[in-house]
Every structure is written in C-alpha cells, then in structure tokens.
Design brief:
The protein has 637 residues and is α+β, with helices and mostly antiparallel strands. The protein has helices at 3-23, 42-48, 66-69, 72-80, 121-143, 169-172, 186-199, 244-296, 303-328, 341-356, 377-393, 412-416, 440-443, 463-473, 527-539, 550-559, 578-588, 623-635, and strands at 27-31, 37-40, 85-92, 98-107, 113-119, 147-151, 157-160, 203-208, 219-229, 232-242, 337-339, 360-365, 373-375, 399-410, 424-433, 477-483, 487-495, 519-523, 543-547, 566-570, 593-598, 616-618.
Length: 637
C-alpha cells in the first residue's frame, strides 16, 4: 500500500472523528494553553446560546461569571500539569443566563486543552425532586399517628418514627421491640416476626397495650411486612395503628344489639304476660263474685263461710300476682299525678323502717330542690318498696340502705350506651345497699321475669320485672350496678316536669253499698262475668240490660226507647272496644254516664294512663266493689 492510500485513510479517519465530535450530545471545547477557544462543537454552542463558530477566538473567562473566573487560573494549571480535572462549573450564557454543568478537562498531546461539558440542570432538578420526596416521606413518617418501625429478626429496633413514642431516638434505637409490649402479647409478636422472615408473608394481629399514664389500656392493630434487599429479608417493618375507638365502638354496638335483643325478648314476654293477666283477671273477677254471692246465703260463723274467706284471700294473692304481670308488661292502668319523689319517700318511710328491722340502717339523702314528676303514686310506692325489700334481702346481718334523690341531666353520650332512654332532664332515685352484691351475669338478668336468686318458694321473680315495667310505663328507665362484696345500686330515672307545684292529692270517698232502680247497660264479652254482674245488680233493684259485645250494645240502644242511666263496659273487647262504644253512644244518648272496667291497659290508652275524671273499676272486682262504684258515678253531680 502506497503513501497516497495511507494518507487517504488518515484523512478519512480525521473526518470521521470530526463528525463524531460535531454530532456529540455533550459540549466539546478545545482551547489553547492560554484559554482561547480554537474549536467548539454544535452542542457546545447550543449550551451557551451562541451561533455556529461564534465562540472560536473567545477566551474561556468570557463565558464564566465573575465568581467562577477567580478559579480559572488554578484549574488551568492543574490541567496543564497533566491532571484530568472533573468539576462543576457555572457558565455565563450569551443571553446573560447561567448554565450549571459538569466539566471534565484534560491536556491533549498536541498541547491543546479539551473540555467535555455536561448540562446537569436536569440531573439537579431530578435530585431536588428526590430530596423533596424524601423530605415529604420523612415528614409523613415523623408526623404519622401510627407507630412505624423496622426491626431485625431478633426484634432489635433499627428505625422508629420519633413523634409516636415517649422516648428519644437514642433511647429506642437498638433496644428490643418486645420490651414495649405487655408480656401476654410477646408470643404473638415473636410469631409474627418469625412468619415474616421465614415466609415473607405479611402478618396482622391486634394487641392490648400496657396501661398508660391514666391507667387506660389501648388497642393497636399491628401489620408486619418484610423489607427485602435482593433475594433476602433484611428487616421487618411494623406499623401499629391505634384502634381503641373502633374497638370501643364495636363493643358499644354489641352492647346496643344485646340491649335490642333483650328489649325484643322482654316485649314478647310482656305481650304474653299481658294477655295471660287479662284472662286471669277475668277469671278472678268471676271467682270473687260467685264467692261473695255464696257468702250472702251462709251464716258468717259457719265452716263453709270460713273456707270461702280462705278462698277470697287466695284470689286476692292471685290478683296481686296479676298486677305484677301487668306492671311488667306495661299494661297496668294508672292514674298519673304531679308529685315529688321526696314526698313519696317521706310518706313510706315508716313502713320501710318497719320492714327493715333493727339491724339495718335506713338513710335518706333527698335533694332539697328536687323537680316534680308525673307518676301513678301507688305504683311508684310499690316500686320503692320492692327495691328496698330487694336490698334488705341482699344483706345478711347489720347493714345500711340509702335512698338518694337528685336532679340529673342525661346527655347523648350516656344515652348511646343505654338505648332505652332519651337525653333530657330527669329525677333520679338511687336505692343502694351494703349487701353481698351480684356478678355481672346476674346483674344482666335481674329485670327478667321469673328470674330470682332466692330459694324456691321465697320469691316469684316478678318484683324487679314489675319495677322496670312500671318505670318504663312512666317514660323512665331503671339501671343496676353491682360488685360482689360491695353491694348494689338501683337507679330510677323519671322524666322531670317543669311544673312548679304538685296539687293536693284527694282522698277517696268512703265506700257505700246501696242499690237503686236505674237502668244499666252492661257490656262484657266474658259470659261468666256478664251472668254474675246481671245477677248481682238485679238483686240490688237495678233494671239491667246486657250485651255480649259493642255491636250488640249499639243495636240495643238504637232500638230501645227507654232511658239508660249508666253504661258499664269492658274496655278491651273484640271489634268495638269500650272507648269506641262510649263515643258512639254519646251521639245517641248525650247524657249517658259511663263506667269502664278492665283487667289491663289496652293499646288505645297511651301508657295505660287514665284521663282525668274518667270512671273506672279495675278487675278483678267483687259485686260489692261494683255496686259501690255504680252509686258513686250515678250520685255524682
């Protein structure tokens, strides 16, 4: 190969190198040892904002801001001395803006200097975003409400976010995470760590933490996951979230659901008890009536009369049991009065002290400004006596029973845990004792009908059920709190009324048994009672018209022209009830007087409350009771 071909290859290689330099993506600057540019590629011109070949002949210091020019001489000396220098420089662009670049400079064999310039603005922007992202992550970790930590296989803490623990990082890093959980929870934490390091699977569990400064223990939900580097688990990440509120909400929900189930069960039992008591009262009415009629024809000193007296006493005990069933079922007919519980307690104090005996101390702590309530006084007296007797039976030996009254306000938070009462103003009666107390299981059942802890034959199990029914019927609620060995407290809450004074209670009129000659219309769907009443009233001289139901009574009144002085009607009857019957007859006989009888409160009467001025006779009754009540109604002006 001749010299000409060799020269041609050199020229071709030089041309390829020139094209490579010209098309490079980085700026390539070649200058003299004194710093004058002799060659700059297109990328170099673009970086500094100059047109083609505009930089050739310029000095390096002309493209540097004043702050960088002071370092130029030192940098050139290093490069001329044979060093390859890599440094970040700031360049001054043609338009006056600045360019941050990474410069790699070295001395060529020809004596010229070459600098390769990289624009690092994008890299710096990317690095800035990374730093900002890291700062955000760090801020999130430090301010997160959860406890976040990484631990090794043994549980040694490698990292923890500082704001969620009451220690400094220096105190925590390097310690074992098991030191911060209760002993009973440590096996679960150890199992979770073993699962993560062995299987790389995420594990979750809930743990009850140690008591805090207030003594309260809080629940945490812990999620444990692997931290993987390459193909191995280098650490475990634990994230603990406080779920105490959720757990408390779940527990409150469970309590409310339990209360709802209990209320539904009690409602079903109450409907059954009310129906049984209604039929039972009808039976007792007929039994009492026939016994009384039989007694009329017997000498008072005869053996048969004595036996019938015993039967009457048994019927009365049955009637009392029936009243307890009706009270539990909230179907007892009541006459609400405006009173204060302080007055009711004072009136029953003597009887209570007599029931308690000498070993028990009765303490009354009565609020002087106690508000008024609207209740049936007789029913409320029975509630008080039942609670006091229940307290007495819970005490063996000397003890104390305290009756306390207060004005209270029940807020929404309290009522959330007691679904049977609404927020508002109440009068509270608390009956507490120093007795043996109850377990939680027993306390949860004390208001159930027929539930009793007393020996067989010493209690019906209806006393507290009656109390609850009576209080509920009055629009209130009753609760119990108890602890074994520390006694029990029953709290009765009754709606407080803003009326300032309670009217004077009227005493009942003396009983009289007198017959008459008026015309009476008796409406009763129980045939035995209808027959008994007809016989007894006819014997007293009355003109008695009878009907087995409301429809028949309407027909009798419509077809009869004779005057009717008094309608005696059962309240609860099929098709047409006593209240509806009286309303219809009032349009036909405006002056017709009415006497209602019933064994329980029908759904038509709100809360079983009798209207003021209504004439009513509670079943079971005797012929004498009925005759006396009839004369009271007929003789009233």
């Amino acid at each position: 190969m001749g010299p000409s071909s060799e020269g041609s290859r050199l020229e071709a290689g030089a041309e390829d190198f020139r094209l490579l330099v010209e098309q490079a993506a980085v700026g390539i600057f070649i200058s003299t040892a004194e710093g004058e540019f002799v060659s700059v590629n297109s990328a170099g011109h673009r970086l500094l904002g100059y047109g083609p070949r505009e930089l050739v002949g310029k000095q390096i210091h002309q493209v540097l801001p004043p702050g960088e020019q002071s370092h130029l001489a030192e940098a050139l000396a290093h490069v001329l001395g044979g060093e390859v220098l890599t440094h970040e420089w700031t360049f001054l662009r043609k338009d006056g803006s600045f360019l941050r670049a990474e410069v790699t400079a070295q001395r060529l064999s020809s004596g010229f200097l070459m600098a390769i310039v990289h624009d690092i603005a994008q890299r710096e922007a990317f690095e800035r975003k990374i730093r900002e992202s890291e700062a955000r992550v760090r801020s999130i970790l430090e301010t997160a409400p959860d406890v976040i930590m990484t631990v090794d296989r043994k549980g040694t803490i490698l990292f923890i976010n500082r704001t969620t623990v009451p220690f400094t990082l220096e105190q925590v890093i390097g310690t074992c995470c098991l030191d911060y959980v209760p002993p009973d929870a440590r096996p679960r934490v150890e199992a979770a760590l073993e699962t993560v390091f062995s299987t790389r699977e995420i594990d979750e569990y809930e743990v009850l933490g140690p008591p805090g400064s207030t003594g309260r223990r809080e629940w945490s939900s812990v999620r444990v996951g692997p931290l993987i580097d390459g193909d191995r688990v280098v650490a475990a990440t634990l994230c603990a979230t406080n779920v105490t509120r959720r757990k408390e909400a779940d527990q409150a929900k469970a309590r409310l659901e339990d209360q709802l189930r209990q209320a539904q069960k009690m409602q079903s039992i109450g409907q059954l008890a009310g129906g049984v008591a209604h039929d039972f009262n009808n039976l007792l009415t007929s039994i009492l009536g026939f016994i009384e009629l039989a007694q009329i024809d017997l000498p008072k000193d005869s053996d048969a009369a004595g036996l019938l007296d015993g039967a009457v006493q048994s019927v009365k005990r049955g009637a009392a049991l029936s009243q307890q069933l009706l009270a539990f079922a909230r179907k007892k007919l009541v006459r609400p009065e405006l009173v204060t519980l302080n007055d009711v307690l004072r009136e029953t104090t003597t009887m209570m002290r007599r029931l308690l005996g000498e070993n028990l101390e009765l303490v009354l702590s009565l609020a002087p400004d106690l508000g008024a309530v609207r209740v049936d006084v007789g029913s409320m007296e029975q509630v008080i006596m039942n609670l006091v007797i229940n307290a007495r039976d819970a005490i063996s030996g000397p003890g104390r029973i305290t009756l306390e009254t207060q004005n209270v306000v029940l807020d929404a938070e309290y009522c959330r845990d007691h679904a049977d009462i609404a927020p508002g103003e109440y009068v509270m009666l608390c009956v507490s004792d120093t007795g043996a107390g109850m377990t939680a299981e027993t306390a949860a059942r004390v208001f159930e009908p027929f539930f009793t802890t007393k020996p067989v034959g010493e209690g019906t199990g209806l006393g507290l059920a009656m109390c609850e029914g009576t209080v509920r019927q009055a629009g209130g609620a009753i609760t119990v709190s108890s602890e074994l060995g520390k006694g029990s407290s029953f709290r009765v809450y009754l709606p407080r009324t803003r009326e300032l004074r309670a009217p004077t209670r009227t005493k009942p009129l003396p009983r009289t048994t007198v017959g008459g000659h008026e015309t009476l219309l008796v409406v009763e769907d129980e045939q035995l009672i209808l027959s008994l009443v007809t016989r007894a009233l006819t014997a007293l001289g009355y003109n008695v018209m009878t009907a087995a139901d409301g429809a028949q009574a309407l027909q009798i009144v419509t077809e009869s022209a004779q005057p009717i002085h008094l309608l005696i009607t059962d309240v609860v009857m099929p098709t047409i009830g006593g209240r509806e019957l009286a309303a219809r007859l009032a349009t036909l006989r405006p002056n017709l007087r009415v006497l209602y009888t019933s064994g329980y409160a029908p759904n038509a009467t709100q809360d079983g409350a009798l209207e003021v001025g209504i004439n009513f006779l509670q079943k079971p009754y005797t012929p004498t009771d009925l005759a006396t009540r009839i004369r009271e109604v007929l003789d009233r002006r």
